[in-house]
Amino acid sequence: xxxxxxxxxxxxxxxxxxxxxxxxxxxxxxxxxxxxxxxxxxxxxxxxxxxxxxxxxxxxxxxxxxxxxxxxxxxxxxxxxxxxxxxxxxxxxxxxxxxxxxxxxxxxxxxxxxxxxxxxxxxxxxxxxxxxxxxxxxxxxxxxxxxxxxxxxxxxxxxxxxxxxxxxxxxxxxxxxxxxxxxxxxxxxxxxxxxxxxxxxxxxxxxxxxxxxxxxxxxxxxxxxxxxxxxxxxxxxxxxxxxxxxxxxxxxxxxxxxxxxxxxxxxxxxxxxxxxxxxxxxxxxxxxxxxxxxxxxxxxxxxxxxxxxxxxxxxxxxxxxxxxxxxxxxxxxxxxxxxxxxxxxxxxxxxxxxxxxxxxxxxxxxxxxxxxxxxxxxxxxxxxxxxxxxxxxxxxxxxxxxxxxxxxxxxxxxxxxxxxxxxxxxxxxxxxxxxxxxxxxxxxxxxxxxxxxxxxx
Length: 457
Known about the structure:
four-stranded antiparallel β-sheet, mainly beta
């Protein structure tokens, strides 16, 4: 583990220069992450990070090894060996018995066609399943039913002891690539470009079963991302840039957006003329949301789609030099994005200062009523300006530390930010001012214990 103190905007040797994207100077006043810890251990691409509790997280990737880390200190807690190929999915869960202290576990699936349940305290394998006919691509824990689902060529329902409760294999050849839990024991499954509504039920006489209630084919290409907004809404995104907002109760389409390249252009900005886009430029790689907006990583850009307005309210078309792989919303109207270009960037959603409407013309023509239509037009335009706030994304931080594609990240609040990369590294980004205060406090406490200084509170 290495600790670095970061100077403003300085790049490690070997990183390519930024081009054609928004840049920020050395004085990144709103960027608190001025220290970093480099965590080493993985021998291949690190693709997954999952939070276990308030101060622990797990990492996994193509070396088939799972590491548990302390988010405060960067200490490696446990190293888990059991898979022989790369990890393809990971999911944390905890014991549901409220009478006991919570026990934390993680599920891992691998290209070796196995799934393992790990105890995060002891580091031991609780159970291992090796009955899969193909690789498991996704794992989802249904806390309300106390079961978990695995998706691949089959969709399987398991209990906590890894007993197979039921399996459905009548899905298409594409297999299940993503799952999201919805209300009323319902699950949305992405199967190629189709979206399946599945209901898990436990009948006293017949036992567990998974029923496909509905199959929708509204997308034109493979669904890459699913996000549950709330109990009423979920959103899907496809390889060709289609975003669809769904009603989670009756599965009707509430809104859709597929022209991101044009939809975020403000009235005072000329649209960019682009004859064609490659799939990588329009692919929706990741979605996240809050109650008001969906935040989408599309091609090299990031987009903010307002659910009530049903339109894009802010965007950065070229937020990074390469495809954006992950995006998350932080407190204080901030976003974080990471990319194949090796960078991690912090953005702030700000309201645009609107220019006052042009004054109604006066003079000779207005005297004779010729200005009346202009007056009505101006009033309508002014009303539209006042009722439709405009936003933009301002770059407030640029975290340069990885030398290859950053796959994803975890936000730990005051403990900082964890990122993982194809360079085999995990980096813990720390608030420099907070870390300095903690070191000073620790030093004073040691001096006080030795009697060298008297603390006054």
